[in-house]
Amino acid sequence: LNFTTYSNEITKVSGAQDRFSGGEGIRNAVGHPLSAFFGYKVTGFWQSQDEVQQANTQAPDGQYQLDAAPGRFRYKDVNGDGQITPDDRTFLGNPHPNFTSGVNLSLQYSNWDMNLSLYASQGAELWNDLKETHDFFSANPLTAKSKEAFQNSWKPGEDNSDATVPIQELDASFSTHGAPNSYFVEDASYLRIRNIGLGYTLPAQLIQQLGAQELRVYAKASNLFTFTGYSSPDPEVGGSVTSLGQDGAVYPRPRKFLAGVNLTF
Fold first, then answer.
1. CA dihedral in degrees (65, 69, 71, 77; nearest 10)?
2. What pLDDT is recorded for position 213?
3. What does pTM read for this prediction?
4. What is the pLDDT at residue 61?
5. Where are the alpha helices (DSSP H) in the chain?
6. What is the Cα–Cα distance from 154 to 165, expressed in whole angstroms?
7. For residue range 124-141, what is the model confidence (pLDDT) as tens digits?
8. Which of 7, 15, 83, 110 has the maximal Cβ count within 10 Å?
């Protein structure tokens, strides 16, 4: 059994700046972990034009949020000035897990033997770039869309209390996928069965009749199951030190099966 945990914080950036970008949605800044996610915090959807107009009326300059419209994201006014500007961007999470752990087991009973390897990561988050093309028609009309986009997107004239995806539109906007926001940040905790094997050694008296000392048959599987709530194919995503956790269509680890025979003369 193994258990690992760590923490990290940027304490200084060379030059006059206190931060630098690691790519879309990533900011490396003093006082925060490497590759921290940064953007607008989504608080829900605009439900009606009356709601948009009421919010704009309350704003100092009459423009609460750029591109605000029913079915689009409603962003959090972080600094409380009554409008949505770049100053309302905030840190949304990071790709570093609270802990990782693993279990390696070897069991033997009579002529049977089994090996099992488990790996778990808890608390890490990912920036899921795949959501842009899978959940937004305007990102790429020719790309296949997710089941969520078809069934759970915001729809005019319907009860949208259970909507989890913005309205489907022909054009992108600041209030959909036109700006980095928390919609793309997902919990990527997972438990994976990395390897499992089962073997059986035939009784010696049977093998000796063949002129052999030992005969063992076995079967193995790799990456058999991954238990996770992450919506894209694989929650185990790498990257460089300053741009970790961006899932831009990482090819999932293949599931492999192997069977064999060990014969000793």
1. 10
2. 84
3. 0.89
4. 74
5. 49-58, 130-135, 147-151, 204-208
6. 6
7. 999 999 999 999 999 888
8. 83
